[in-house]
Amino acid sequence: MAFEGLAEKLQNTFKKLKRKGKISEKDLKEALREVKLALLEADVNYKVVKDFIANIKERSLGKEVMESLTPGQQVIKIVKEEMTELMGGTESKIEFTSKPPTILMLVGLQGAGKTTTAGKLGGVLSKQGKNPLLVACDIYRPAAIEQLQVVGDSLGIPVFTMKTHKSPIDIAKAGVEYAKQNHKDLVIIDTAGRLHIDEDLMDELKNIKNSVFPTEILLVVDAMTGQDAVTVSESFNKQLGIDGIILTKLDGDTRGGAALSVRAVTGKPIKYVGMGEKLTDLEVFHPDRMASRILGMGDVLSLIEKAQENFDEKKAIELEKKLRSQQFTFEDFLEQLQQVKNMGPLSDVLGMLPGINSKKLKGIELDDRQLIQSEAIINSMTKEERRDPSLINASRRKRIALGSGTKVQDVNKLIKSFEQTKKMMKQLSSIEKGNKKGRFKFPFM
């Protein structure tokens, strides 16, 4: 989970502060020292940490904080505000041109995930009503073009390619022209990378830039490279001039220092973050929400958005009707499990709830593997058994366990869980009976 180590240390530090009725300058100094060490261990740039701590100290020593009835809470509020500002303050959106097509040029080092990100970005923006075209300009890396085509096919997004003897500049120009002729309002150019920044790479990127005049140049950076990510961002911005940053592999970086450093060092906003390997795992970067998650305040807005994306409202209404008429079956239960799984790893989903300790989620009973196991058990039932669980006697339970590669105890446990869920959902359905029409509800609750 992103920022896991940093989040745990900061939350422990502020827990101590909140317990104090009054905060002395010494208490504040000790707390800020712990914050400083936590940030440095998370691989946040030293100068960024120094300025960050200085700003918090200056604001926290003010009369309204030190004499407050809840000084600990006031300090945490200041830390959240400063951290939000450090990461950009507000969400930074893609600027679309009034005269299509909007041209987005993706740049970065080899291995940062540019090609996959190009597809992910196309997928995200197509959901916003855009009609994208992916342009394959990486003619050097083996199978780079084929990789982009596979990604494009998976998302239903066309990919423009040319014979490899053509230069990336020619391909980019022809791709933009093709987009204009075929009414594509968005062009995403996947450029070549290198293992390190060199003159040839920069010259080629500058030539593409000067040929197609991209609306935005987006730098794709691997968050797991820590301080190197900051160095790379600074260098690309200085030599090429970038408009925004996409951080990949943030889900695998327990330190997360790059996300807290690149905005401060380059002055350029983080626009998106890659939070997984699936082609849907690209999220808009919200500095305020990320700061809340790091400080253990949760991220309820993102959780609601995830749920709204993955839950079908019509099916939710149908489910409510079934609950009221006592017709909730294992088929409905399986559908709910699949929709929860679509929201991403359960630890990430639960981590968005306020007050949830990410460390404790590691031992949580209901994990992603259990969801897969539950699916296997339900799929091993006959249609009649799924619709009428009362048919599932001892011999049938043995057959289901054998068919799903599980134990009879696992089958028993799932049936018990189904009955409890059915009961709980019926209760919640009754509670929500008076809700206004059209109000969003979590179908799995």
TrEMBL record:
<dbReference type="InterPro" id="IPR013822">
    <property type="entry name" value="Signal_recog_particl_SRP54_hlx"/>
</dbReference>
<dbReference type="InterPro" id="IPR042101">
    <property type="entry name" value="SRP54_N_sf"/>
</dbReference>
<keyword id="KW-0547">Nucleotide-binding</keyword>
<feature type="domain" description="SRP54-type proteins GTP-binding">
    <location>
        <begin position="269"/>
        <end position="282"/>
    </location>
</feature>
<dbReference type="Pfam" id="PF00448">
    <property type="entry name" value="SRP54"/>
</dbReference>
<dbReference type="InterPro" id="IPR003593">
    <property type="entry name" value="AAA+_ATPase"/>
</dbReference>
<keyword id="KW-0963">Cytoplasm</keyword>
<dbReference type="InterPro" id="IPR004780">
    <property type="entry name" value="SRP"/>
</dbReference>
<dbReference type="InterPro" id="IPR027417">
    <property type="entry name" value="P-loop_NTPase"/>
</dbReference>
<keyword id="KW-0694">RNA-binding</keyword>
<feature type="binding site">
    <location>
        <begin position="108"/>
        <end position="115"/>
    </location>
    <ligand>
        <name>GTP</name>
    </ligand>
</feature>
<keyword id="KW-0175">Coiled coil</keyword>
<comment type="function">
    <text>Involved in targeting and insertion of nascent membrane proteins into the cytoplasmic membrane. Binds to the hydrophobic signal sequence of the ribosome-nascent chain (RNC) as it emerges from the ribosomes. The SRP-RNC complex is then targeted to the cytoplasmic membrane where it interacts with the SRP receptor FtsY.</text>
</comment>
<feature type="coiled-coil region">
    <location>
        <begin position="7"/>
        <end position="34"/>
    </location>
</feature>
<comment type="similarity">
    <text>Belongs to the GTP-binding SRP family. SRP54 subfamily.</text>
</comment>
<dbReference type="GO" id="GO:0048500">
    <property type="term" value="C:signal recognition particle"/>
</dbReference>
<dbReference type="InterPro" id="IPR004125">
    <property type="entry name" value="Signal_recog_particle_SRP54_M"/>
</dbReference>
<comment type="subunit">
    <text>Part of the signal recognition particle protein translocation system, which is composed of SRP and FtsY.</text>
</comment>
<feature type="binding site">
    <location>
        <begin position="248"/>
        <end position="251"/>
    </location>
    <ligand>
        <name>GTP</name>
    </ligand>
</feature>
<dbReference type="GO" id="GO:0003924">
    <property type="term" value="F:GTPase activity"/>
</dbReference>
<dbReference type="InterPro" id="IPR036891">
    <property type="entry name" value="Signal_recog_part_SRP54_M_sf"/>
</dbReference>
<dbReference type="Pfam" id="PF02881">
    <property type="entry name" value="SRP54_N"/>
</dbReference>
<dbReference type="InterPro" id="IPR000897">
    <property type="entry name" value="SRP54_GTPase_dom"/>
</dbReference>
<dbReference type="InterPro" id="IPR022941">
    <property type="entry name" value="SRP54"/>
</dbReference>
<feature type="binding site">
    <location>
        <begin position="190"/>
        <end position="194"/>
    </location>
    <ligand>
        <name>GTP</name>
    </ligand>
</feature>
<keyword id="KW-0342">GTP-binding</keyword>
<protein>
    <recommendedName>
        <fullName>Signal recognition particle protein</fullName>
        <ecNumber>3.6.5.4</ecNumber>
    </recommendedName>
</protein>
<dbReference type="GO" id="GO:0005525">
    <property type="term" value="F:GTP binding"/>
</dbReference>
<dbReference type="GO" id="GO:0006614">
    <property type="term" value="P:SRP-dependent cotranslational protein targeting to membrane"/>
</dbReference>
<keyword id="KW-0733">Signal recognition particle</keyword>
<dbReference type="GO" id="GO:0008312">
    <property type="term" value="F:7S RNA binding"/>
</dbReference>
<dbReference type="Pfam" id="PF02978">
    <property type="entry name" value="SRP_SPB"/>
</dbReference>
<keyword id="KW-0378">Hydrolase</keyword>
<keyword id="KW-0687">Ribonucleoprotein</keyword>
